[in-house]
Design a protein that fits this description.
Layout lengths: L1 H15 L11 H4 L10 H14 L15
Length: 70
Amino acid sequence: GEGDLVGLVDEVRSNLGSRPVTVCDAPEAVRAKVDVWGRHDRGADELMRRVKLSFDSAGVFKPGFFVGGV
C-alpha cells in the first residue's frame, strides 16, 4: 500500500546517504506524505524562487510544483 511506498522512499534515501533521490512518479497519496524532491540546498531554493519570479511574476505557472515549493 501507500505506507509501504513511503517507507521504501525513506529506506532508499537512508541507504544512499547524501545522494539526491527524487520521486518522479507516485500516487497522490504518497506524494502528499513525502518531499518528492528530497534534500536540497535552501540557498538554491531561494535563487530558483527569484528566477521563477522574474519569468512568472503572477505565479500562474505550476505554483508550488518545483523543488522547495517554487
